[in-house]
Amino acid sequence: MNRSFGVARVSLSHHIGRVNYHRSIGRQEDRSGEVAGGPALIAFCYGMAMNMFITGATGVLGRTVTRLFVESGHKVRALARNSENESRLRDSGAVPVRASLSDLPSLLSAVKDCDAILHLATRIPPSSKAGHRAAWRDNDHIRTVGTRNLVDAALEAGVPTLLYPGIVLIYPDGGDNWLDATTPPQPTSILQSSLDAEAEVQRFTKAGNRGIVLRMGSFYGPASSGTKQMLHIARYGIAMFFGQARAYQSLIWVDDAALAVVDGLAKAEAGIYDVVDDEPLQRRELAATLAQTVGRRLLLRPPVLLLRLLAGKDAMFLTRSQRVSNRKFQSATGWSPMVPSARLGFRLLSIPP
Ligand SMILES: NC(=O)c1ccc[n+]([C@@H]2O[C@H](COP(=O)([O-])OP(=O)(O)OC[C@H]3O[C@@H](n4cnc5c(N)ncnc54)[C@H](OP(=O)(O)O)[C@@H]3O)[C@@H](O)[C@H]2O)c1
Fold first, then answer.
1. pLDDT of 150 above 50
2. Whose alpha carbon is nearest atom 38 of ligand 1?
3. What is the DSSP letter of 144?
4. Which of 66, 153, 172, 270 is the most exposed place for a label (fewest CB within 10 A)?
5. Rounded CA separation 226/220 (Å)
6. What pLDDT digit, counting tens, does each position of 265-283 carry?
7. Do residues 77 and 95 touch, judged by C-beta distance below 8 A?
8. What's the confidence (pLDDT) of residue 24?
9. pLDDT at 127
10. Which of 53, 54, 55, 61 should be mutated for ligand 1, with most atoms under 8 A from CB?
């Protein structure tokens, strides 16, 4: 990484430090790059502290994003749903705000005088319940009603920027072909609410603002409970990658996703971008790499029928082959993943924290 950032230096250490990666954000000293996107963007790039409001700040992505912004001197307000979260948010340096995504007046006061809103909240049901459509109701509500209320609040309060992390799972099965934001989505009943949220972001942009959608690959990293579960099951000889051996799966290391939020906010124009690693692997490669991580010769991949029995027909989109390209986001922002493929990422997971 040869970009020059100064003043506020924030490093994502833990595992990444061990591969000698150091990354800082905010308060950019190199002013040669073109800046588009209005006063908030200029403020972010040129060293002024920004006010932001984050939903989902206690989540896997939200925790790292919050830390990055707080440690680089920006002012973070974060939605808190209970007192336990209030104290966690305070500990992270954010200011907790009691609000509800269902309650427009509470959001209006939460976003007052903000430069940007990051809508990182979600509620994915545990895999044991994912087969029941009703288990997705809260998640649908957060994405549809929640995003609509946030956009309404942002428009009324004059917040110029809103960022929402979508999901690459909305793409169709593309076989060996590369997919990106120009590929028409193929939603299912579970995925539709993410496209509804994207439509709200588009409404925000059409009103003259900067709405950014970052469609992200599946998260993995030491802090992700999904990753811990994947490693646990792999130690019993099973790789939970469903679908054909040659099918591609697009992943993103959690810290890279968080840095993409930072870079998207700092540099991206309104639009839809894909945030995945550089080299999506086929499922047979993922299983082989994961086997090395847990010290086994090979791992078995369960049959698709098991997914259907466990999670139901609505979850069959998880078997799609999705070889997603991050090229548009890289060229718009200069972001590039520290962990370019699961070949490195799974190796990093084998290092004890
Ligand atoms: N995980 C992935 O693989 C993945 C892949 C692509 C995109 N994304 C997107 O990335 C974003 C963050 O995902 P994540 O994995 O970091 O999520 P996560 O770890 O499950 O965290 C979810 C966050 O949402 C909050 N939340 C839950 N229900 C809420 C509600 N009713 N109102 C307000 N906040 C609520 C939670 O707060 P509490 O602590 O109060 O429960 C928590 O802070 C989401 O938009 C997700 O769709 C995730």
1. yes
2. 58
3. I
4. 172
5. 7
6. 999 999 999 999 999 999 9
7. yes
8. 43
9. 78
10. 61
Q: How big is the CA angle at 324 (ends 322 and 330), to the nearest 5 degrees?
A: 170
Question: Is the pLDDT score of 231 beyond 60?
Answer: yes
Please determine, for residue 46, whether its predicted confidence score (pLDDT) is greater than 90: no
Q: Tell me the two tokens of residue 144.
A: 């549809």
Q: Compute CA distances 255 → 2, 123, 338, whole Å.
A: 18, 20, 8
297/310 Cα distance (integer angstroms): 27
- H/E stretch holding 252: strand 251-253
Q: How far apart are CA 228 and CA 234, in angstroms?
A: 10
Q: 3-class secondary structure for 207-247?
A: CCCEEEEEEECEEECCCCHHHHHHHHHHCCCECCCCCCCCC
**What's the token pair of residue 320?**
């799609």
The three-class DSSP label of residue 51 is strand
Is the distance from CB of 171 to CB of 185 less than 8 angstroms? yes
Instruction: Band the pLDDT of 310: cuts 50, 70, 90.
Output: confident
Residue 160 has pLDDT above 60, yes or no: yes
Band (352; pLDDT cuts 50, 70, 90): confident
Give the separation between CA 289 and CA 280, rounded to whole angstroms. 13
Residue bearing the CA closest to ligand 1, atom 15: 60
For the chain, give the percent of residues with pLDDT over 90. 78
Residues with CB under 6 A from ligand 1: 55-62, 79, 81, 85, 101, 120-124, 138, 142, 165, 167, 216, 218-219
Average pLDDT over the chain, rounded to an integer: 89
Cβ count near 6 (within 10 Å): 12
User: Quick one: which atom of ligand 1 is closest to the CA of 121?
Assistant: 24
Domains and CATH numbers, the chain: 14-221+252-278+324-338 (3.40.50.720)
- Which has the closest alpha carbon to 164: 110, 108, 109, 205? 205
